[in-house]
Design a protein that fits this description.
The protein has 65 residues and is mostly helical. The chain has one domain. It is built from two helices and no strands. Helix 1 runs antiparallel to helix 2. It is elongated, with a radius of gyration of 16 Å.
């Protein structure tokens, strides 16, 4: 999670400085990778909490308008 947050902050700074297309593409790939890693970690943690009965077994859903 911290890695992804750090990369997001760097991405915001990079976007303000006008990155080249190559820089943007490389950084976008890093962000997608770090997001997927963070999501995987959250999913594993949630499953752990479900096992202990601290969260419901059904996945959290919300309506997006």
């Amino acid at each position: 999670m911290r890695r992804h947050a750090s990369l997001m902050n760097t991405a915001i700074q990079l976007a303000r400085s006008g990155p080249t297309e190559e820089q943007r593409e490389v950084f976008a790939n890093q962000l997608v990778s770090s997001f997927n890693d963070a999501q995987s970690a959250w999913d594993a943690y949630r499953a752990h909490l479900v096992e202990h009965g601290l969260l419901p077994a059904l996945p959290f859903t919300r309506d997006v308008a």
